[in-house]
Amino acid sequence: MHKIKHCLLVALFTMLGSNLVKAQIGEPRNIFSVGGNLGININSATFTPTIKQGTLIGPNLGLSARYITEKYFAMICGAQIELNFAQRGWKEAFEEGDMSSYSRTMNYVEIPFLAHLAFGKEDKGMQFFIHLGPQFAFLISDKEKFSKDFEPQHQVTEQYGKKFDNKFDYGITGGLGVELKTKKAGNFLIEGRYYFGLADFYNNSKKDYFDRSAHSIISVKLSYLIDIIK
Question: Are 116 and 68 in contact (CB under 8 A)?
């Protein structure tokens, strides 16, 4: 636990540009990598009152940059930042045989700030890694999709046609993954990630209908990184 806490602190100092990174206890590293990522979001939204939902899948893609600062015993420590386009939202579930359908897609620009903790081969071979950190996003567009003969079947109908009150979103994200490191062809990563939204996209004061309206997302991502400084 002490090792993990130490590496998390080092990664956070790196993201903030702190000079405290220079006072490391482990073996120093200076590896800067850039690349891209591509994946899917398996989306839902947490509502209070509850809305029954199915699965809404959307794209998640963007740019990645990573900086490795040190190796502390067997743990490789660093930080990663991304700039992504992410499609979120929800799809409502109806009774079997009901031909009605409704979905709401929400397009965001998102920026995760991640501590990167890895174990395994440094130069060539496999690494297992953990990502954890805050994520911020801004809503750029949204779209409602109704079936042709849509008729509301749920007790909760306030969401239909309702504009979003809050375009800024934030929460906590974390993931586990595997990285294949090569000397000449770059680094290939596959990761599963979960995002827990802390912000509500509808207002939640006593006079508002929803007490809770936040994103809950499972992502699967493929990334490719090239070492620029090593």
Answer: yes
Question: CA torsion sign, 10 to 14 to 15 to 16?
Answer: positive
- Domain of 24 in residue numbering reads as 2-229
Round to the nearest angstrom and report the end-to-end CA distance of the chain: 28
When the pLDDT of each residue in the chain is averaged and rounded to a whole number, the result is: 90
Using CA atoms, how far residue 224 sits from 35, 75, 94, 196, 217, in Å, is 5, 21, 39, 25, 22
Note the pLDDT tens digit of each residue in 117-134.
999 999 899 999 999 999
Beta bridge partners of 195: 173, 217
CATH code for the domain of 50: 2.40.160.20
- Residue found under tokens 């130069």: 123
What is the token pair recorded at 181?
A: 């490191």
The answer to pTM > 0.90 is no
Bond prior to 134 in cis (omega within 30° of 0): no
pLDDT of residue 147: 87
